[in-house]
Amino acid sequence: MSLPRIAVDAMGGDEGVRVMVEGAALARRRHERFKFLLVGDQALIERALDNHPNMREASEILHCEDVVAGDEQPSRALRRAKTTSMGLAVNAVKEGKAGAAVSAGNTGALMAISKLALRTMPGLDRPALAALLPTLEDHDVIMLDLGANRECDARNLVQFAIMGAAYSRTVTGRERPRVRLLNIGTEENKGTEDIRDAANQLREASGLAMDFEGFVEADKINRGDVDVVVTDGFSGNIALKAIEGAARFVTDLLRSAFSSSFRSKVGFLVSRPATELLRHHLDPNNHNGAVFLGLNGVVVKSHGSANAKGVANAVEVAARLLEDDITNRIARDLGALGEETLNGASDGLQAAK
Description:
By secondary structure, the protein is of the alpha/beta class. It has helices spanning 17-30, 42-49, 74-79, 85-94, 107-118, 154-172, 193-204, 233-258, 262-282, 308-323, 326-337, 339-352; strands spanning 6-9, 36-40, 59-63, 100-103, 128-133, 141-144, 178-182, 211-216, 228-230, 290-293, 298-301. Helix 7 (193-204) links the parallel strand 7 (178-182) and strand 8 (211-216). Residues 344-353 have low confidence and may be disordered.
C-alpha cells in the first residue's frame, strides 16, 4: 500500500538533522513504502543522507535554513511560519504536498502553526495533544489533553473522549476502547462540575464506538485497565511529567543500587534480563510520538530529546494515522454523537452558572 509523503522538520529537536534523518531512515528500513519530504538546510541533509543510502530514492529536500528556537514564543513562531523548517513542514500538509508532518521542535510553536495552517475540524472546538503511555499490560494507554488547552469545559472533554477513542482504535485495534475521565476519585460526585457534566453526557450518549467507564485516578493510569484517559491540558501535563519523573526515579534508583557493592553488581548480572525488560518498558523512545488530534491534517510531535529509534516511532505513528484516515474517523464519530448532545453539555453549564 502506498502512502502520502511524510514531511519531516529535519531541523527540530535537540540534535536536529542527524537524528531526524537517521530516525526517518530507520523507519524506512522497517517500511519500504515510506517516502519523505525533508525540510531544512539542504547541505546538512545531504551530508546526513550519505550515511543512509536507502533514503535517497525515497526523499525530496525542501531547503530552509530558518529554525524555530526551543524557547521561542508561539506568537513569534507564527509570524515566521513561512520561512522556518517547522512552518514549511506543516504547510506541506496544508497544500497536499505531504500527508503528515513530524517535528521534534518547540511544542507550543508547533501547535500554534498547525492550528492556523490546518484549522480545527468542523464540529470541534479545540484540538488536543494525545500521547501513548506504557502500562502493565501488552498495550499502551492514550492520554489527552497533555498541554494544548489549559482550561476545558464539559463540551471539550466530551470531544476529547471521542478523538481519543478514535485514536485508540487505530493503535490498539480495540473496537470499543475503554474511556475514563481523570479525576480525584472514582465516585460519581467527585471532581469539578465540568468533569461531572462531561461524564453524564458520555454516559447518556448512544452510538459511540467506546465504552465509557467513569473516572480514573492518576495512580491507576498505567495499570492497563483503561485505554483512553481524558483530562484538561493543565492536569494532563502535570500527570505526564509526574509519570515521566517516576520512571526516571525508578531507573536511577536501580542503577544506584546495583552499583553500590560487589554483591549488588553480581545481583545485577543475575537479574539483568528482568532489568533490561524494565528499561525497555520505561524508555520514552519506545512510546514516542504525540499527536495533535482534531486538525484537518496529521501532525505528530516527537520528543525533543528523542534518539533515532524514538524519531522512527514518531514517523510510524504518523503513518498509522494516515493509513487509518484518522481525520475522517473522528468526523464520523462526532456525527454519531450528534450536535444535540454536544450542545447539551454547554447548555447545562450555562444554566448552572
